[in-house]
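Instructor's aside before we start: the two examples that follow are unrelated to each other. I chose them only because their records fit on one page, so don't look for a connection. First example below.
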Amino acid sequence: MDLGIAGKWALVCGASKGLGLGCAQALAAEGVNVVMVARGAQVLETSAAALAKAHPAVKVLTVAADITTPEGRTAALSVPGGPGTAFDIVVTNAGGPPPGDFRQWDREAWIKAVDANMLTPIELIKATVDGMAERGFGRIVNITSSAVKAPIDILGLSNGARSGLTGFVAGVARSPLAARGVTLNNLLPGKFDTDRIATTLRVAADKSGKSIDEIRASQQAQIPAGRFGQPKEFGAICAFLCSAHASYITGQNVLADGGAYPGTF
């Protein structure tokens, strides 16, 4: 299927590896020019070089910056050779805050979580969405978490901050933007085979005394699909939501978790 987005420009955050890279790869495969943003310059440049080699017809630009800071956002929206703020597609993505007991979190911890996982996406939306509406096409995809759908007690910082973003997007997506060709959706990952999963598996193994392989097998057994997801398939979902064919999908929370969520709605 031709997704109808070749030649457009996408800003992809957290794009050096994991789910963000999966999204950048899927978009580039559709002929989309990509600005990749991540904090780690070395990994970012390596990933970008591989992407540019695989898709020589598209432009692949990099910004090594922290997108959760005003300076990082300014750098991303003014990268030389890029479209400035005239992005057609924006994929927001920032690392989740640490787990823990809510009794241990002070105001600073909450502000940091809200800043990264709620206010940063809102700032990127604010900077780009009106231009999208003027041009008659725009796609915003926020990578959030399955915890928005099924909260996890030790991820209270993430539950709170990402739920705030979810509420905001629900309202904005149903504004007049929808009639001007602009969609806003949230993409909720469950357990995907990324560095973050590898870290949580090691922590769980250390605490339980079991091997990492045992912990992995136990967690995968709880997923109806019987496995963790792959960044490549997550990217494919993202690319479809960004496509010309997804113009009637907006304000939605798309859950990709292999069937782990047990609810009907």
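Example two begins here.
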Amino acid sequence: MSDNVRRVLYLSHAPEKVYTMWRAAMPEGAELLTLSANDDAERLEKLAIADAVIVAPAVLKPEWVPLAPRLKLVQHQGVGWEGETPIAAMRERGIRLAINPLGTPEVVSEHALALMFACLRHIPRADAAMRRGEWLGTAIRPISRNLRGRTVGIVGMGRIGSAVAALLQPFNVRGLYTDPAVKLPEGLELALNFRRVPLDVLLRESDIVTLHLPATAATRHIINDASLATMKPDSILINCARGAVVDEAALARALSSGTIRAAGIDVFDPEPPLPDNPLFGLNNAVLTPHVAAGTIDAMMAKVEGATANLGRFFRDGSLENEIDLTALA
């Protein structure tokens, strides 16, 4: 390999089809390094010669940074970087960080609605019963609900939360949202029929609470025994954000006791979840393996956005959607 080649490591082990997409889109003069297995020894061997890494879902561990002497850029495949980035180690080395919003809001918001419908209409339960030869039509009808006309609370009104609000428009929902950093313009609030309220009001009044906020020290376990106790007994919790924002043990207790009706969960802490995760035994929990952003359409958009950023960086050092690590505590 020529020393003039810029080497980009895809930090996660992925199917060859994924590698092929990234390899075909690499900027001129750049070479994609991939993993033959989910093996840290191979990962560190290739990290040692990488000029940049593409991160998702595997994270760059702080102890790996000193083992990557050429590393200059961490490019996230998506937008979730909080709590998953070795800020101090990267800042010390002057390694830069960029995120990639392309593809994420549209596909994650669709998955959030899919989980809402799955919980409201008991779709996984009905499917499993039919495969066992059981017909639950009369059993499910009295406990299923419409999405139309419900009160939906969005916790975190960034790109994804806003996309969820837009997707909900045909269903004539009453919308509430809370976000300490975002206040939608009054005209947009009126158009979307979403009103900004404190978190406790949102939890108390919503039929469906959907989480779209980053994992930080301030948001860790923001959904816990106390917050779940304020929700309606017939309410549903959706989490397509990060696993750490929900206390999974508390959620399992709330689902088991009837404190809330159901939950649709796409993210866990840790990932993959441990075999004894208390949510696994509950038929009112709909679980998916962190695939809210996982469609081929979203991947194509992410590849386009991230490789374009790599090209800018290798060409002249410029970046779009850069996170300024020097401004972080």
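The two ends are 39 Å apart (CA to CA).
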